[in-house]
Design brief:
This protein has about 600 residues and is α+β, with helices and mostly antiparallel strands. It is built from 23 helices and 18 strands.
Amino acid sequence: MCGIFGIISPSVGSRIDLEQLSTHAKQRGQDSSGLLFLSGGRYQVQRADFQITQLLRGLGKYDAGVIAGHSRLITNGLGDNQPVIRDGICVLHNGIIVNHEDIWAQIGRTPQQQIDTEVIPAIAAQHLASGGDVAGIAGRVLGLCRGIVACAVAVPELGKLCLFSNNGSLYTGSKNGGVYFSSESYPLTTLGCTNVVQVLTEGVVLDIPRSTDSYEISNKGSRKTNLIPSLPLSSTEENILVYKQHAIRRCTKCILPETMPYIRFNAEGVCNYCDNYRSRTKAKPREELFKLVEPFRRAKGNDCIVPFSGGRDSCYALHLVVKELGMKPVTFTYDWGMVTDLGRRNISRMSAEMGVENIIVAADIAKKRDNIAKNLRAWLKSPHLGMISILTAGDKHFFRYVETIKQQTQISLNLWGINPLEVTHFKAGFLGVPPDFEENRVYRSGAMKQLRYQMLRFGAMLRSPGYFNDSLWDTLSGEYFRSIASKTDFFHVFDYWTWEENAVNDCLAQYDWELAPDTSTTWRIGDGTAAFYNYIYYTVAGFTEHDTFRSNQIREGQMSREEALALVDDENRPRYPNIKWYLDAVGMDFADTIRTVNSIPRLSEELAT
């Protein structure tokens, strides 16, 4: 989940071009960086715990031949930045190898580093040692590795550099007699490269200056923020979490409780949410969608964008777009620092299995998490269920960057996989916004609704001035792009395919989609925030978004009320590892935070009095 780039040229490549390539690569991840280049006839490797543009600014003179860079979104460990060197082979890798631990046993070698990428040079070295040629490295690596592998493999001793990809997240172009490469086509076309082509499994082998000297390696910077929590689990901490059954009245048809905002029960005990419910899963004829997308199909290249979180719904939607609709998508992921490694592995797994390019826009993760911490501290000083959503406001720039990716790829069509049953009226309801039973989209839209919502939020913020911090603009601008900014050329896949949970889970099992070890549900398991905010909702209100989701399934006839009650009894249990990860990631003390949540008065007790 990174950006790689480089210039292979008989003359010293343009410094301006190199800077532009690095700037775009930083969009995909800016947590650490690395360079491979030739200087004084010897290959140099520089790694840093800071942004690639900063590392490049400190670069001195370098020889003609090869210069390549890596801008990293931190995944799968902090210990080893790229480029990764082993057995004289240097690798710059974009992606996550999800089966690297199994590969070591298959090739009979032992890892020496923490990073999953190390297995690539190990495979390449074994292949060459057994008599294989450089051109065969791609096939050998891709034959063993699962997950995205888009990489540059340099073998200086043989004077060769291999470029290959199993999902298309790698492009080459020609300029000034040299070859440029990048994780995306956009920077190459912007720089005026010709013959821009996608690099796939067959790969490309380029000549680079030969050298038998060892690499000169330098590591720069010292990370101030731990972007991957070490996650030391403790039974003492876990015991602080409570899971108390609430004595509350529930709807006799669905399972919504009396603590649900704006709920009312009729004489039969059926709630107004049931009385006003309109089916959300009645699919339109698929032929309509085939006709709608027909003008966007391309004979060559990608023809649509699938917003892609790595969650079950976007993964299932990707399957439908590729296998049923027959489109050639590029997926788009916005990583704002609350995508867990499990979520990232599923992104890597699905993209590789389906051979689909994945474009990533990564936020400044340290800053985003600091914003969360500021708002969480403000929330803890004046707990308010209607203000919990501010903790997830940072992810709304997802909608802003969809438009950016449309411009960069020149692809206008985007196909969304939003689950129509994920309606959570209560999140705004606790703030004072009554449910809009006529609303037919998961995400609220319209300037007037957003203005009213923000006015209510402002009133709640006055109770805890800590909310007025430098994250406010990030919050407001993100919500503008989600709810107000106009959007064009988009369709919802689940308007045409009925969303049914068992079918979704069965489909994903075919791709070896990874499940969470701390819960039975497949919903939001790659989301680092969900376990924490659901713990608050359940502790204080006696229900979570699982209850509203299961209630919608009851109304759709997808399960019985008894089945739903049994499921939420399990799904609402505290997910200690996920909550621990979240609080460690944002730098909050686990015990202090949970004890504050536990001390909030229960709504069920207030109703009883």
